[in-house]
Amino acid sequence: MVRRMALLAAVAVVTVAGTREIRELRTYRETVVVSEALTVQVPLSTYFGGIKGTVMDAPVYVFDSGVPGGSALILAATHPYEPASPVMAYVVMENIAVTKGKVFVIPRASMSASTLGMLGNAYPAFFRVKTPWGEKKYRIGDRETNPLDQWPDPFTFVHYPSRQNLAYQDSRNLNRTFPGRPDGNLTERTAFAITEMIRRERIDLTIDVHEASLGYPVVSTYVCHQRAEDMCAMASMILEAEQRFKMKTEVSPKTLRGLTHREVGDFTESFAVLMETPEPFIDKFVGPMTEDLLLTGRDEFEQTAAERGLLYADYDIKTGASLDYRVARHLAGAAEIIKQMGEFYPEKRMDVSWPTYAEVMQHGIGYFLHDPATADPRRVFRN
Amino acid sequence: MILLQEVIHQLYFIMAALAALLLLTRLFRRKSRRGLAYDIVYAYAIIPFLLPALHIK
């Protein structure tokens, strides 16, 4: 009896100790000190009750100037393991000023996917950004919805409504399930909630913020629905001329289903744009996937690939592709596409501002993140 | 569809609890295979069924 009780106790200890990191990743909440421009925060389930009470019921932050104009949605962390995406959203939320139009921000579109790591990649659960007042800690996450929240996968995922056959794991990939469906799996219902929000709020521009590996052709790119092609092309040229970083434009392929730049453009009135930065951390041939690689983007294997002409973006290990650089690119990319929407459609003009590319490159992103311990508690939110 | 998913979800927890109870009973009360190795196997096999209690189903 005593032996068996001891064994049972040992098993309980092993279970609790062995799952500590999983539980920490699932329960840790990131803090954000929103700017004074915040009007309201609502749950995503406001737009579709089918996700209420689930981990995917992400908070939506609304920054409304009260002055008629255009509206834009910054949709971040559709794929959480592309960390410049949520960090860009947080920098926007902490520093935004809006004097015309309305901005919606979802910093964690796939909350579930931010609560696990990618099998086989052995990267850490968290990364930290240095600030003048200390460190801010963020989840790295995965690409797909956590199997703890949606399981099992089908043998083949059939996209709705196109009926295109996709890989089985795409049933948990938020950016393969748009426009979503109300009676689908959790990921499809989340996509439906976001699509409903865009429809009901009549959001003029949807900016889906991603990162890409340098071995992937669609890196450093705006991918745009055909209705947004002209404004994307103009924004690309201006970014290259004024900010001095390369940014291509590609039109969303009509046969590539389930992605925001295709389905949001087809199933809503919104201009759909997806942005990609160069992110060595998610390349398949880099060395150890460490927090340092995520923050600096410096990797000798990436350099070798660059020297052999195997990459689709410029790369130099001396400068790498730091998180500061990637977030700065996204901030500039989003600001420019919003500006271009106003140029092409004056009735949709918006006046918004957040840290510029030059400011972030000079000071680093930590400079623009505020200390929740000393901030007005009404402005501190947890995601 | 959503209701059916929720029903299956709850059924999973009920089945996990029943399996854990069965293993627990067998750990303490069994007439054959009473050696240490079997005790370890029974105790170890309980782990997956303890996970739902830690919100890791």
Tag the structure with descriptive keywords.
heterodimer, A: 383 residues, alpha/beta, Aminopeptidase, 8-stranded mixed beta sheet, two-stranded antiparallel ribbon, 10 helices, 31% helix, globular, B: 57 residues, mainly alpha, 3 helices, elongated
Radius of gyration of chain A: 21 Å
Shape of chain B: elongated
Elements of chain B, N to C (H/E): HHH
Q: What structural class should be given to the helix and strand makeup of chain A?
A: alpha/beta
Number of helices of chain A: 10
Quaternary status: heterodimer
Order of helices and strands of chain A: HHEEEEHEEEEEEHEEHEHEHHHEHE
Poorly predicted runs of chain A are none
Mean pLDDT across residues of chain A: 96
Tally of separate domains of chain A: 1
Largest interface: A-B, 21 and 19 residues
- Strand-residue proportion of chain A: 15-25%
What summary fits the major beta sheet of chain B?
none
Helix % of chain A is 25-40%
- Largest sheet: spatial strand order of chain A: 2-3-6-4-11-14-12-13
Total number of strands of chain B: 0
Tell me the count of domains of chain B.
1
CATH class of chain A: Alpha Beta
